[in-house]
Design a protein that fits this description.
By secondary structure, the chain is of the alpha+beta class. 50% of the residues lie in helices and 12% in strands. Helix 10 (247-269) runs parallel beside helix 35 (770-801), helix 26 (621-633) runs antiparallel to helix 27 and helix 38 (1000-1018) packs across helix 41 (1075-1090). The longest helix is centred in the C-terminal third of the chain and has 50 residues, at 1290-1339. It is elongated, with a radius of gyration of 50 Å.
Length: 1693
C-alpha cells in the first residue's frame, strides 16, 4: 500500500508530519479521453511527533488540495466515495434531497417576495441620497440578506437589479449601507465557491465600478474578496518581503483574478452540464476550445500584471532569462558532468569595454596580469572573471589602489558595497564610463560557445551511443516531423496571439491584415485564430511588426517571452533590436550610481543642471521628463503642455522612476534632491500623474526620510510631498504605512524638535491606514497564493491529459517563483538594529566598514555584549567579528554567541570561539538551519587578562528570502499527491493481474518523460528541476517498487514472479523473433528504469523512533516522504532479487545435490544468474551482492549433512581440477578455466556456517596433494582468491608450515656439513696421534713395555672411540655406506594445521628403515633437538618429534623411476633383502593397519607395478614377490607413478556425523550461556570467550567424537562464530536493534546435545603439543645394481 488506511480513511504522506486524505467530492466532468473525472478535496492532516493518531491529530480544513481523479484512482484510493455497488457517488446525489425538501409553491412565493424587496430597496436608496439612511432601508436590506442565505433562492439574486443595488450600496458614503451590502454579499457567497466567484466577478466587471467606488468603498469590496478567498488558498509567505501594491492596482489584480477563476470554473463545468453533454462532438470541442483560449489569454494578462505588481520585471531584468541545459532531472548531477549534461553557466554581462583587451587575447595568465597591472588606473570600472571567496564572477566594481601584498588589488564592489582585495588576472578592465558599451547579448555568447570560442562545444542531447539506452529512465521521443518543425507550436502561437489581442483599433487590424495576406486571404475570426498553423517566417514578420505598436509594459513582456527569444530579431541577428529599452530597464538600478558619480566629478559643463545629468542616462525617454520640468516651470497655463507629457510618461515611466530613486543618493546631492521634490510635489496636482508607479520608488523616499544626514530643507520638502501625495490618494498612505513611515517620521520629529511642517498630520494619516495596510498585505498574499494554486492546477492537468500548457508567460511566472536563495543579504539588510552593552554612541563603528575605527566597551570583565535584532526569516549564513592584534589586551580572547526569541530569553548557546592573538577576522556562526529573532555576542574574556574590549567591525551574511521555498513545498505536495494516487491505482491493477506489470515500463516511461519535458520547458535552473524529479521519483517509483516487491499470501511478489519468468525463458529469448524475446525486453526495460537513480551521498541521520510490536506493528509510510528514497528503492529491489535467487538456488540444490556433476552444474547455474543480474540491473554492486546473499541463504537452508556433502563436493572438485591442471596442454588449460569458475562460486561460502565443513574437507585434500605431489604456485593462488572461505585459516597455515620446513631443511644441510667437517677433523687428529706414537716406539729402549703401553693406549683409544661410537652409533650408521648416498628431505608438520589422521601409525626408523637412511633421520633429530634447546627471547613450549609414514619417494628399479609413497618405499626396499615376504610379516614389521597397507600394495601389484601378490595356504594375506620380466613384459624406461590415488571422504560417514555432533554441542553451549544472561544479552566477543571456556572446562564430546576430529577436542573462535551465525539465521539468537553487537536468547528451540564426558579423562592438564614429520628422500650417484638375477630397489628420491 502507498499510504495508510486507518479508520476507513486513506492517507497519503506529503512530508514530515503531514498526510492528506480524501474528504469530499466537489464536481464531476468528462475528461479528454471521454471517461468521467471527479474533483476530490484532499484535506491536509498534521500529526504529532509520536506518529500516531488520537489527540495529536489536527485536521486543517483551510489546507487542502483539489485533485481530479479517474474511476480507477478513486476505486484504489477513496473507498468512502464508493457506493455499495462499487460506483462513485456523484456530487448531485447529496444535494438532491435538500433541494426537494422545499415545496415549489413556497419557493415561488419567496422568489416573489425577493423581487419586491429588491425593487423597494432601490427606491429607498434613491430617496435617501445625501442624507442619513432611514431605518426602513436598513431593515429591507437585512431581510434581503436573510433570503440570500437560502440556497434555493440563489438564482433570484442573479438578477441584474441586484448588482445595481449592491453597486449603489457600496458606493454610498454611509458606513451602515456599505456594511449592509457586505452582509448581503457574504450571505450570497456562503453557498459555494462558484456563487461567491460569480457575485464578486459581476461586481468587479461593472464598467462604472472605478468611477463610483472611492477609497473606502473599494476597501470594503477588497475586504469581502479577502474574506472570501482566505480559506480557498491558504498560503503563508512569512519572512518574504512582499512589495507595496496600491489599492488601485490591487483592485485591478482582483478583477483579473476573478475573471480567470470564473473561466476556470466554466472550463471544469462545461462538460458536466446536461445541455453540453447532449451537444454534438464538434460543438463541444469548439466551445471548449473557445473557453481554453479565453482562459489562456486571461491567465496571461493576470500573470503579466502580477509580475509588474511584484516588481519582478525590473528586479531581474539585467540578468535576463537563462536557458537551463537539458539533463536528467531524476538523477543527481555529478561534479564531472558528461556529454549532454553540461552544468549551468552564468551569462556574461551586457557591458564591455571599447578599447581594453580581454583575457582571451593573451597567451598566458601572467602576460594578461602584467597588462592589467600596467593599464589599470584608479577610478576605472572592472569586472570579476572568476569566483574568489566572497566575490563572484560577473561582479563589477571600481578600482581603488594596489600594493605589494597578496592579493594586491583593492576594488570597491557593487555587490557587497565595500572593498575587497583580489588578484590581477581575475579582473577585466571596463574603463571609465565613456569606455563602456552595452552591446553584448547572451545569444552572442551562445554563438561563441557553439563555434568553440568559449569553452568546448558539447554534443546535442539527442546524440547517444548505442550502449547508452538506459542512460536516462525514459525513452527519448522521436524527432519531430519536418513539416511540424517549420510551424509554431500551439503554445508559441497563443503566446504571440496574446500580444496581437493587446493591440487596439488600427494596429490590430494591420496585424490581422498581415496574417490574412500570408494565409491566402482567409477570413480570420477568433475560432480560426486559435487553431492557426503559423509558419516560422510569418511569426518572424509579426515579431518585427509588433514592438512599434506596443506600450512599454507590454513590450517588456514581449521581449521576455519565450516566442520572442526563439524567433525574434535578437535570436536571429545576435544583437539587441531595442537597446534603448534595455538601457531604460537597467536605469533604475544605475540611477544611484550615476548620481554619486555626478556628485564626485567636477562639473565640466556649467550649463547642465544635476537633473539634466541624471536624465542623460535614460536615453530618449529622459527628454520627456526634461520637457515636463520646463512645462511645470513656465508661468503660463500648464495643463495643455503637461497632460500629453504625463501620458507619455505613463507609457515610458523609466525617467520618472529614475528621478524618484535619486532621493536614495548621498547627501551631497542636496540641490538635486530639492529640485526633484519640488517637481514631484507639483506633479501630484495633476490627475494624469496618479497612474504613474509612485509606489515602486517609495523605498527611495523612505531611505531619504530615515537617513540621519538628510538636510532639514530636503526633509521638509519630502514631508510636504508625501503629505500631498497621501492626501490626494490614500493608497499611498497605506504604502507608507507598510514601509514603516510612522516610526521614521516620529524620529525625524524628535531630531528636529517637532519643527517640521505637516509632519504630525502625515504621521496621523499614515497611522489611520494601519488596518488598510493589513488588508492590502492579506490581499496580495491571497492573490499570489491563488495564482500559484492555479498554476499547480494547470501542471496537474498537463500531467493527466498529456496536453501542452498554452498559457502565455507561464514559464516567466515559474521562473520568478523558482528563483532560489542564492542571492546574499549583507550587514544592514539582515538585522533591524544593533545594541551594545555600553558606549552606545560608538555602536555605529561596528557597521561603518572601516577597519580603523572600533567600538570600545566600558564595564567589568565578561559583561560586554552586542545584540543583533534580525529581520524576519533571515537564516544567518555567516556571522563574523573584525578584530586587530594591535589592540593587545583589548582584543577578545573568548566569545560566546547566544540565540533566543527575544532579548529576555537568550538561553540557547549557539557557539563558543577562542580567539587567537594573531586573528583578524573571527567567524562566530555558519550555516544556521533555523531563524533566531535575537542573536547576542558576549565577550567573556580578553587577551592578557584585559577588562574592556575593542571590536573593529561586525559582518553578517544571510540568504535572501525568496518565493522558491514556498513554491517548492506546494509543488512537491501536489506532485507527491498526484503520483502517489496514481501509483496506488497502478498497484491495484498489478495486484489483480500480475501480467499488467509488463505495461508498467511504458506507463512509467510516459510519466517520467513528461516531467522531463516540463522541466526542460518551464523550470529555469537545476535546483528546481531536481526538486521536481526527486519528488516525482519518490512519489511514483518508490511506492510502486514497494508494492511490486512485497510478497503476497503465497510469499511471492509480483516482481519476483516476473523475474522468475524471465529466468525461465532466458534461453528461448536468444531468438529475436520469439515472444520470449519481446517479453524479456519489456522486463529489462522495466528493471533498468527502476534502478535509474542511485544514491550519491550519505542520507541524513534518522532518529530512531519507537515502533509498535506484535500484531499492531505496521509499516511507517511517512518515511516515504522523509527518507532518502532512492536507497529504499534499491533496498526493495535488491531484496526482491535476493529472494528470486534464493528460490532458484534452493530448487537447484534440492533436485541436484546428489548428482555426480553437481559442482559443474551449480557453477553454470551461478554463472547464468550472474549474467541475468547484469542484463536486468546493469553492473551494479548492490545486485551482485544480493545475488551472493541469495545463494548464501539457500545454502543456509540445507540440513547439516546435506550442506557438508555440498562442501565436500566443492572441495573434491577443486582438488581434481588442481591435480588435472598439472597435466599441461589444452586439457590443463581447460582444468584451470573450470577451477576459476568454481572458485568464483565458492566465495559465497565466506562468512557462512558451511565454510567450516568446507575448510575441513579442503584441508584433508590439500594435505594429500602437498604430501603426494608437492607444492606449486597454484596452491597459493587458490588460497589468495578463496582465503575468506576458511574461518580458521588452516590451509594458509599449512603453506606457511611448508615454508618453515624448507628453511629448516636448509639449516639442516649446513648442520650436516658442519658435522662432516668435524668428523674429518677428528680423523686427521687420530692419524696424527698414531703417526707420533709409531715414531716414539722406534726410539724406545724397552719394546715390551712400549708395546703394552701402545696396546694399552690403543686400547684406550679404541675404548674411547668405542665409547664415542656407542654414543653416536645411530647418527653415524651411514658414514661408511659404499652405495649411492640418497638425498633425504624432512618436512616438519604441525598438528595444529595438518590433518594427521594417521598419527597412530608412527614410523620407527630403527626397525623399518635401512642403515643408510636411519643415520640421516637420527642426525635430523639431533639437529632439531639442539635447535629447540637454544635460548630465545620468545619461544613456544619445546616440541618433540614423532616420525610418521606420510611422505613420498623416488626409487630406481632398473631403467624405471618409481614414484611411490613412504610406505611403498619401505616395502620395496625390504624386498632388496628378501625375495618374498608375506603380508602378515609386513603388518608385524610396520605396525600399520591392513587398510593402509592394502592401499599402498594395490598400485605396486597393478599392471604397471613391479610386484606380484601370490595367494598361498601358508600365508593368509598372500606373499609379495618381485615380478619376473618373462611373466609379463613392461616398459624398461621412464617414470612410473605408483602413489596411491586420492581417497575422498563422504559426508554421510561417521566423520560427518561427528562434525554435526560438535556443531550441536556448541549450539547447546551458546544457548545455555545466553539463557543465563536473560534479556540483557551478551557482547559477542564475551560470548565467544565464555563458550570456549565452557568447552575446555565443562562438558565435552564423547571419546569417539574426539578421536574422529583428528585435532582432538580443540575448538576455535571461528567454530563458535559459525554456530552463532547458524543460530541467528534460525531465529534462536537475536541482535539488539540499537546495539547489534549485543546478542540475546530469542525463542526456545530443541538443540541436539551429544553425550558429554570429561574432555581429558584421567589427566589434570592439557596434552603436550605434538609435531609430526614426514620424509622426502632423494639419492645421489649411480643406482645400486644387484649381482643377482632379481631386480632390486635403490633409493632415488
Amino acid at each position: 500500500m502507498v499510504g495508510e488506511l486507518r479508520y476507513r480513511e486513506f492517507r497519503v504522506p506529503l512530508g514530515p508530519g503531514l498526510h492528506a486524505y480524501p474528504d469530499e467530492l466537489i464536481r464531476q466532468r468528462v475528461g479528454h479521453d471521454g471517461h468521467p473525472e471527479y474533483q476530490i478535496r484532499w484535506l491536509i492532516l498534521r500529526r504529532g511527533d509520536d506518529g500516531e493518531g488520537g489527540s495529536n491529530q489536527v485536521d486543517c480544513k483551510a489546507e487542502h488540495i483539489l485533485l481530479w481523479m479517474s474511476n480507477d484512482e478513486i476505486y484504489a484510493n477513496c473507498h468512502k466515495m464508493l457506493g455499495e455497488d462499487g460506483q462513485v457517488i456523484g456530487p448531485s446525489q447529496e444535494t438532491a434531497g435538500e433541494a426537494g425538501a422545499l415545496d415549489k409553491s413556497v419557493l415561488g412565493e419567496m422568489e416573489t417576495d425577493v423581487k419586491a424587496l429588491i425593487q423597494r430597496a432601490l427606491r429607498q436608496l434613491e430617496e435617501c441620497v445625501g442624507t442619513i439612511p432611514p431605518a426602513p432601508l436598513l431593515h429591507t436590506v437585512h431581510v434581503l440578506s436573510a433570503y440570500a442565505s437560502i440556497e434555493p433562492l440563489t438564482g433570484v439574486f442573479k438578477d441584474p437589479r441586484v448588482l445595481d443595488l449592491l453597486m449603489h450600496m457600496l458606493s454610498s458614503p454611509d458606513y451602515q449601507i456599505r456594511w449592509s451590502a457586505g452582509r448581503m454579499i457574504q450571505a450570497l457567497a456562503s453557498h459555494d465557491a462558484g456563487t461567491r466567484t460569480q457575485i464578486l466577478l459581476s461586481l468587479s466587471q461593472q464598467e462604472a465600478i472605478e468611477k463610483y467606488l472611492d477609497f473606502d468603498s473599494r476597501c470594503a469590496l477588497l475586504a469581502l474578496f479577502a474574506q472570501a478567498t482566505l480559506s480557498e488558498h491558504p498560503m503563508s509567505f512569512e519572512g518574504i518581503q512582499l512589495p507595496q501594491v496600491p489599492g488601485r492596482l490591487l483592485f485591478s489584480l482582483v478583477k483579473r483574478y476573478l475573471h480567470v477563476t470564473s473561466l476556470l470554473d466554466q472550463l471544469n463545468d462545461s462538460t458536466a452540464e446536461p445541455g453540453v453533454q447532449n451537444s454534438t462532438p464538434e460543438e463541444l470541442s469548439g466551445e471548449r476550445g473557445r473557453l481554453e483560449l479565453e482562459f489562456s489569454m486571461a491567465m496571461g494578462t493576470l500573470i503579466s500584471e502580477l509580475v509588474q505588481a511584484m516588481r519582478w520585471d525590473w528586479t531581474s531584468s539585467r540578468q535576463g532569462p537563462s536557458a537551463r541545459p537539458s539533463c536528467s532531472i531524476f538523477q543527481p548531477q555529478r561534479a564531472d558532468a558528461g556529454p549532454g549534461l553540461p552544468p549551468a553557466q552564468a551569462l556574461p554581462s551586457l557591458r564591455r569595454s571599447r578599447r581594453f583587451r580581454p583575457r582571451s587575447e593573451f597567451a598566458s595568465g601572467n602576460t594578461y596580469a602584467l597588462y592589467v597591472r600596467d593599464t589599470l588606473q584608479p577610478g576605472m570600472r572592472v569586472r570579476m572573471l572568476d569566483d574568489y571567496e566572497e566575490i563572484s564572477a560577473g561582479d563589477e566594481g571600481e578600482f581603488r589602489q594596489s600594493n605589494n601584498g597578496v592579493p594586491p588589488v583593492q576594488v570597491l564592489w557593487e555587490s557587497t558595497g565595500r572593498t575587497y582585495w583580489v588578484h590581477w588576472h581575475m579582473l577585466e578592465i571596463l574603463g571609465f564610463e565613456e569606455d563602456i558599451e552595452d552591446v553584448v547579448e547572451a545569444d552572442e555568447y551562445r554563438g561563441a560557445a557553439a563555434s568553440g570560442a568559449v569553452g568546448i562545444a558539447l554534443p546535442s542531447w539527442r546524440w547517444k551511443p548505442m550502449t547508452e539506452l538506459y542512460a536516462v529512465p525514459y525513452v527519448l521521443p522521436e524527432d519531430e516531423d519536418a513539416e511540424e518543425s517549420e510551424h509554431l507550436s500551439q503554445a508559441e502561437w497563443w503566446e504571440l496571439l496574446f500580444f496581437i489581442k493587446k493591440l487596439d483599433g488600427l494596429d490590430h487590424q494591420e496585424v490581422i491584415q498581415i496574417l490574412q495576406e500570408n494565409l491566402d486571404g482567409e477570413v480570420l475570426d477568433d475560432e480560426i485564430l486559435a487553431e492557426l498553423a503559423v509558419p516560422m517566417e510569418l511569426a518572424q514578420d509579426l515579431l518585427l511588426a509588433l514592438p512599434q505598436r506596443l506600450d512599454d509594459s507590454t513590450l517588456r513582456d514581449l521581449l521576455n517571452c519565450r516566442v520572442y527569444r526563439k524567433y525574434g530579431p535578437e535570436a536571429l541577428a545576435g544583437q539587441p533590436a531595442y537597446p534603448s529599452l534595455l538601457e531604460a530597464q537597467g536605469q533604475p538600478q544605475e540611477s544611484a550610481g550615476a548620481a554619486s558619480v555626478e556628485a564626485k566629478e567636477a562639473p565640466t559643463r556649467c550649463s547642465d543642471t544635476p537633473l539634466q545629468r541624471l536624465l542623460e542616462g535614460c536615453g530618449p525617454a529622459g527628454k520627456i521628463f526634461l520637457d515636463l520640468e520646463r512645462a511645470l516651470c513656465s508661468e503660463g497655463p500648464r495643463e495643455i503642455e503637461v497632460k500629453p507629457l504625463l501620458l507619455q510618461l505613463q507609457r515610458q515611466p523609466q525617467p520618472f522612476l529614475a528621478v524618484m530613486r535619486s532621493l536614495d543618493t548621498p547627501v551631497a546631492n542636496k540641490a538635486l534632491h530639492l529640485a526633484v521634490l519640488r517637481i514631484l510635489t507639483q506633479l501630484v496636482d495633476f490627475p494624469e500623474a496618479l497612474p504613474l508607479p509612485w509606489h515602486e520608488a517609495m523605498d527611495a523616499c523612505m531611505a531619504c526620510l530615515r537617513s540621519p544626514d538628510t538636510a532639514r530643507e530636503v526633509l521638509q520638502e519630502l514631508i510636504l510631498f508625501l503629505h500631498r501625495l497621501a492626501s490626494v490618494s490614500r493608497d499611498y498612505a497605506v504604502v507608507l504605512n507598510q514601509l514603516g513611515a510612522r516610526d521614521a517620521i516620529s524620529k525625524a520629529l524628535e531630531k528636529h524638535l517637532g519643527k517640521l511642517e505637516l509632519a504630525q498630520e502625515l504621521r496621523d494619516m499614515v497611522f489611520k491606514c494601519e488596518k488598510h495596510a493589513h488588508l492590502y498585505r492579506k490581499l496580495t498574499t491571497n492573490i499570489l497564493g491563488g495564482c500559484i494554486q492555479m498554476v499547480l492546477g494547470q501542471i496537474e492537468d498537463h500531467r493527466r491529459t498529456h496536453r501542452p500548457i498554452n498559457i502565455p508567460f507561464f514559464d516567466v511566472f515559474l521562473r520568478y517563483l523558482c528563483q532560489g536563495s542564492s542571492v546574499e543579504v549583507r550587514e544592514d539588510k539582515c538585522w533591524e538594529k544593533v545594541e551594545v552593552s555600553s558606549n552606545p554612541h560608538r555602536a555605529s563603528k561596528l557597521t561603518d566598514r572601516n577597519p580603523k575605527t572600533y567600538w570600545e566597551s566600558n564595564g567589568s570583565a565578561g559583561s560586554h555584549r552586542i545584540t543583533l535584532h534580525m529581520h524576519q526569516g533571515i537564516l544567518v549564513r555567516q556571522l563574523a567579528l573584525l578584530v586587530a592584534g594591535e589592540d593587545s589586551s583589548y582584543m577578545p580572547a573568548r566569545v560566546v554567541v547566544f540565540g533566543g526569541d527575544s532579548a529576555s530569553s537568550l538561553n540557547t548557546e549557539l557557539n563558543a570561539v577562542n580567539v587567537m592573538p594573531s586573528a583578524s577576522r573571527v567567524v562566530l556562526l555558519e550555516n544556521l538551519n533555523r531563524f533566531w529573532p535575537v542573536i547576542q555576542i558576549r565577550v567573556k574574556r580578553c587577551q592578557q587578562g584585559g577588562i574592556d574590549t575593542r571590536i573593529r567591525g561586525l559582518e553578517v551574511l544571510g540568504p535572501k528570502p525568496t518565493f522558491w521555498p514556498v513554491f517548492r513545498e506546494q509543488l512537491c505536495r501536489h506532485t507527491r499527491l498526484f503520483y502517489m494516487v496514481r501509483a496506488q491505482a497502478w498497484s491495484q491493477d498489478i495486484s489483480e493481474d500480475r501480467r499488467s506489470l509488463l505495461h508498467l515500463s511504458s506507463r512509467l516511461n510516459g510519466a517520467l518523460r513528461q516531467e522531463q519535458n516540463f522541466a526542460d520547458r518551464f523550470l529555469p535552473d537545476h535546483e528546481a528541476a531536481r526538486a521536481l524529479g526527486k519528488t516525482c521519483w519518490e512519489a511514483l517509483v518508490s511506492p510502486l517498487v514497494q508494492n511490486i516487491t512485497s510478497p503476497d499470501e503465497d510469499g511471492v511478489s509480483p516482481l519476483g514472479w516476473l523475474l522468475d519468468q524471465y529466468l525461465e525463458c532466458r534461453e528461448a529469448a536468444h531468438n529475436p523473433q520469439s515472444r520470449a524475446a519481446a517479453f524479456s525486453s519489456r522486463v529489462r526495460r522495466l528493471t533498468h528504469l527502476l534502478v535509474h537513480v542511485e544514491p550519491c551521498e550519505a542520507p541524513p541521520p534518522v532518529v530512531a523512533a519507537p515502533r509498535a510490536r506484535g500484531r499492531n506493528r505496521s509499516h511507517d509510510w511517512s518515511s516515504l516522504a522523509t527518507r532518502g528514497l532512492p536507497s529504499s528503492i534499491m533496498r526493495n529491489l535488491t531484496r526482491c532479487w535476493r529472494a528470486v535467487v534464493e528460490e532458484q538456488v534452493s530448487s537447484f540444490l534440492t533436485s541436484r545435490w546428489r548428482d555426480e556433476d553437481f559442482v559443474p552444474r551449480y557453477c553454470e547455474h551461478f554463472s547464468n544468474l550472474q549474467k541475468s543480474s547484469s542484463e536486468l540491473f546493469g553492473p551494479r554492486a548492490a545486485f551482485l551482492l544480493a545475488l551472493q546473499n541469495g545463494c548464501a541463504n539457500a545454502l543456509l537452508k540445507l540440513p547439516f549433512l546435506r550442506a557438508a556433502h555440498v562442501s565436500e563436493q566443492f572441495a573434491r572438485h577443486i582438488d581434481q581440477r588442481i591435480q588435472g591442471s598439472r597435466i599441461g596442454g589444452a586439457r590443463g588449460m581447460e582444468m584451470l578455466a573450470q577451477l576459476q569458475r568454481c572458485l568464483e562460486t565458492v566465495l559465497i561460502f565466506s562468512g557462512l556456517e558451511i565454510a567450516t565443513t568446507f575448510e575441513h574437507y579442503y584441508q584433508h585434500y590439500m594435505a594429500d596433494r602437498l604430501l603426494g605431489m608437492g607444492s606449486s604456485w597454484l596452491e597459493g593462488a587458490v588460497l589468495e582468491q578463496i582465503g575468506p572461505c576458511f574461518p580458521n585459516r588452516l590451509p594458509q597455515q599449512m603453506l606457511r608450515s611448508l615454508s618453515t620446513s624448507e628453511e629448516l631443511q636448509h639449516q639442516f644441510h649446513v648442520y650436516q656439513l658442519q658435522r662432516l667437517d668435524q668428523e674429518l677433523l677428528k680423523l686427521e687428529d687420530s692419524e696424527k696421534k698414531i703417526q707420533v706414537s709409531r715414531e716414539a716406539s722406534g726410539r724406545g729402549r724397552e719394546r715390551g713395555t712400549g708395546e703394552g703401553a701402545a696396546l694399552e693406549a690403543g686400547a684406550a683409544v679404541a675404548a674411547g672411540v668405542a665409547g664415542e661410537e656407542a654414543e653416536e652409533e645411530d647418527e653415524n650408521e651411514d658414514l661408511y655406506y659404499e652405495g649411492a648416498m640418497p638425498e633425504v628431505s624432512v618436512l616438519v608438520l604441525s598438528p595444529r594445521c595438518w590433518p594427521t589422521a594417521s598419527i597412530c601409525h608412527t614410523l620407527n626408523p630403527r626397525t623399518c628403515l635401512p642403515a643408510y637412511l636411519r643415520g640421516t633421520l637420527n642426525r635430523y633429530s639431533n639437529f632439531y633437538n639442539k635447535r629447540e634447546s637454544y635460548p630465545a627471547l620468545e619461544r613456544a613450549p619445546q616440541q618433540r618429534l614423532q616420525w610418521t609414514w606420510l611422505g613420498r619417494a623416488e626409487l630406481q628399479f632398473g631403467d624405471q623411476t618409481l614414484h611411490v609413497s613412504t610406505v611403498q618405499m619401505w616395502l620395496l626396499l625390504h624386498l632388496n633383502e628378501q625375495k618374498a615376504v608375506s603380508m602378515e610379516r609386513l603388518l608385524e614389521l610396520s605396525g600399520l593397519s591392513p587398510d593402509m597397507l592394502n592401499q599402498a600394495i594395490g598400485p605396486l601389484t597393478s599392471s604397471r607395478g613391479p610386484l606380484d601378490l601370490h595367494e598361498t595356504k601358508d600365508a593368509p594375506g598372500g606373499v609379495l614377490k618381485i615380478r619376473d620380466d618373462s611373466e609379463e613384459p613392461r616398459p624398461r624406461r621412464g617414470h612410473v607413478w605408483l602413489v596411491p590415488a586420492q581417497t575422498y571422504l563422504k559426508a554421510e560417514d561417521e566423520e560427518g556425523r561427528d562434525l554435526e555432533k560438535r556443531r550441536n554441542l556448541l549450539n547447546c553451549l551458546i544457548v545455555r550461556v545466553l539463557k543465563a544472561r536473560g534479556d540483557e544479552g551478551l557482547h559477542i566477543d564475551q560470548l565467544v570467550c565464555l563458550v570456549l571456556e565452557a568447552w575446555q572446562k565443562g562438558p565435552c564430546p564423547p571419546r569417539g567424537l574426539v578421536s574422529s576430529l583428528g585435532r582432538g577436542s580443540t575448538c576455535g573462535s571461528a567454530d563458535v562464530l559459525s554456530c552463532i551465525l547458524h543460530l541467528l539465521g534460525k531465529g534462536t539468537v537475536r541482535r539488539q536493534d540499537d546495539r547489534p553487537q549485543m546478542l540475546s536468547y530469542a525463542v526456545p528451540v530443541t538443540v541436539m546435545e551429544p553425550h558429554t564426558e570429561s574432555l581429558n579423562p584421567g589427566s589434570s592438564g592439557p596434552n603436550p603439543p605434538l609435531t609430526f614429520h614426514t620424509l622426502q628422500i632423494r639419492s645421489r650417484g649411480v643406482p645400486y645394481a644387484s649381482c643377482t638375477s632379481t631386480q632390486s630397489f635403490s633409493t632415488f628420491r
